[in-house]
Amino acid sequence: MQVDFSVTFLWSLANNLSFWIAALLTNSVLTRRKSKGYTFFGWVLFAILHFIFCIVSYSFNIADDNTNFLSALVLAPVAATLLYTDERAARVFTAIMSELIANVTTFFFCGTTLSLIDNTPNPYNFRTIGIFLCIKAFWFIVLFFAYRLLVRRTLQEVIAILGKQLKNYVPIPVYCYLAFMIINWLTNTLGILPGTPNTRIYFIVFYLIICSVFVILYYEIFSTALWSSRALKTEAELNVASNIQRDMLPNIFPAFPDRSEFDIYATMDPAKEVGGDFYDFFMIDKTHLAIVIADVSGKGVPAALFMVIAKTIIRNQAQSSLSPAEIFTRANEQLCENNGEGLFVTAYLGILDLKSGVLTYANAGHNPPLIQQNGGRFEWLKLRPGFVLAGMEGMRYKEFQVTLSPGDSLFMYTDGVTEATNAALELYGDKRLEDALNAEDAKGLAPDQLLPLIKSKVDLFVASAPQADDITMLELQFHAYMQEPKEAQS
Q1: Is the pTM of this model over 0.70?
Q2: DSSP letters of 273-305?
Q3: How confident is the model at residue 117, as a pLDDT?
Q4: CB burial of residue 142 (10 Å; 0-12, 13-18, 19+)
Q5: Distances from the Cα of 186 to the Cα of 66, 203, 291, 453, angstroms
Q6: Contact (Cβ atoms closer than 8 angstroms) between residue 67 and residue 74
Q7: Which terminus of the chain is more exposed, N or C, with fewer CB under 10 A?
Q8: Among the ranges 57-66, 152-161, 216-225, which has the highest mean pLDDT value?
Q9: pLDDT at position 100, please?
């Protein structure tokens, strides 16, 4: 269909307006490479190029929108790629989404509005297109402010988090755009046009249905990208939290390179990014070493936060007392305060006198350790455990003693070891742990060799089954009694 050049010019201008709204939407989201003036001049050049394509195409057939759509699909992403500094996938995704929004809005709001207020038999005339251009300008102003208010920050959040991974989502708006082109071609071929009395009602109903589908697609595109980005953000934050938690635990070995009386090593493998297990060891004074291993109920972030609190309180209390029972009693009272989530901690605390080898210890509902004495087997250091920490106010804890001789070892762990489960739902169990510690390949190993060996045996047992709980182990080897300084002896 051919018409006067003035009509072609005005119709090209009306369609070029969609390119401009896409430019404004893109500019409101992305980061400019240079100044506002440079960016504006760049979009002007691409808009002029798009306008030329429209004029040439509509001069041959004013009802054929394919060149308009295809040129916009190519030019908008190219302009965004050249004028902004974000990830390439973000620039392409934003530009195509903006073009899609602009064109769907044209038909959803502008075309239906024209159908309601204009009844010209042939909509391709100067007056009708002039009205359409005014309608389009009005709805695009509304769209622009609605976009900035409701969509822009969400899209910026998606871009900031997904980055290069946004390339996986670029095909979605491209396919939607091409589908819209096909729908537009079909309606033009069938003569279903806005403003035409015979087809007006069909145009309104058809595009209300089709554009409603596209609104749903918009929602799916944004929600999918948004939830994916938030999931990645959460994962990144959990990785940071995991690093912070790992750094809170002693992780530089040898831990006491200037001490020859003992050797100590520990590992913690959380079931999730962060966990509730923790261990600690520190010198209370020059002659007393404190060792702690504990397990907070639950998993994940809540357990990790409570773990930080419990570790801090126990360490602070240990700095002012040499009695494990008193340390646990005081820590229990503090942990019970404001414990609205009802979390609790199982813990084992020992204080070793390096001069005498006497280990004074208390157990707050934790798994019993294994002890190796006089070069013999690892055996259970069993006792009746006290109540868990943070479980009930007013609890009192008992303490016990065992004397370590040079060459003795103490192995401590959390229930993630013995309750490790394979695909057949069998537990690793106490017996397998005891056998692993007393196996030939474990004899005479230093702590930093023994713990990885035990972990490898647990992993071999579990095989492909997912890790259900945090796995934490600590071994203390006592080598020699602490000698009095020569000055003190004399």
Answers
A1: no
A2: SS-SEEEEEEESSSSEEEEEEEEESS-HHHHHH
A3: 80
A4: exposed
A5: 11, 12, 77, 69
A6: no
A7: C
A8: 57-66
A9: 87
Q: Is 125 helix (H, G, I), strand (E, B) or coil?
A: coil
Give the tens place of pLDDT for each residue, 152-198.
Answer: 887 787 777 777 777 887 888 888 888 888 888 887 787 777 666 77
CB 327 within 8 A of CB 362: yes
Q: Which residues pair with 364 in a beta bridge?
A: 347, 386
Q: Is the pLDDT of residue 289 over 50?
A: yes
DSSP-derived secondary structure letter, 382 = -
Name 296's Cβ contacts closer than 8 Å, sequence gap at least 6. Answer: 276, 277, 278, 303, 304, 306, 307, 310, 343, 344, 345
Q: How far is CA 406 from CA 305, 393, 409, 484, in A?
A: 38, 39, 9, 17
- pLDDT band at residue 297 using 50, 70 and 90 as cut-offs: confident
Determine contact, residues 409/371, Cβ cutoff 8 Å: yes
pLDDT of res. 241: 61
Write the CA distances from 113 to 123, 173, 193, 207, integer angstroms.
13, 25, 12, 12
What ranges make up the beta strands (E) of 312-441? 345-353, 358-364, 370-372, 378-380, 400-403, 409-413
Structure tokens, 12: 């090209």
